[in-house]
Amino acid sequence: MPELPEVEGVVRQIRPAAIGKKIQDVYVSDIIRVSKQNGKEAIIKRMEADGFIESLIGAQIISVERRSKYIYFTLKTLENEFLLVNHLGMSGAWFYVDHLMSIAEEKFRRHAHVVFTLSDGNLLAYSDIRRFGEMRVLKEEGDFPPLLLMAPEPFEEGALEHFLSMAESPKYRAKPIKEVIMDGQVISGCGNIYATEALYKMKLHPNRASGRISRQRKIALFETIVAILLESIEAGGSTISDYRNINGESGSMQNRFGMYGKKQCIECGNATKTLKIGGRASVYCPTCQK
Question: Which end of the chain has fewer CB atoms at under 10 Å, N or C?
Fold first, then answer.
């Protein structure tokens, strides 16, 4: 699943391609249309495909921002200003191309489910192989209340204090630290990959309860998470399977992993172990992480 660095990379590339341009046409794939006719909420949430199209045609893209793992498109028509909020899910990807055949990989071309024709004649295409991504047209952020519960951006002033307050609260004290730092209400944008890497660097066992970690170590853990997220942004994110930027390029952060996906600890040489925490597989070194 794309995490904060991958989403940040996509946003940085969408901005110069899309800001200031109008959406002249919108295509929604038959797969999504049939899914919605069958009562499923595939990608487009709480709207029928035709209503989604009608709301977007003619709108100008005013800004593109990232909030945690979400992409916020601010759109404007003559009458209204509103949001298109997108989550990439497990395999979502955006492409800026002159034609769908310009998307290099066939698997992404075949799963281009929402395509905007922009006023410059190019396409801004959303491809989602597994269709776990989301698009919501909102009058304002509060129209989808879970967005208001997200923690501050980890790079913002006050994010550390928020993290400490949440991690030391009764709700989280007994939970495994891995589950705590993957919770978007505690830290924004830190998922399984970067949580695994941060805990390995800190030599913390992923199943250790948050309440059994000193405040000093919590501060160091938060700072480690921030450093890893920033490093990954500079590396173009991590490509494990399906992440691509809008030019179809992969990230390189996966080449720097110390623990995620490893069968053997790179420091002590012992075999790694895997346990399930918060519904996700957690890889760790039983020798180095305590």
Answer: C
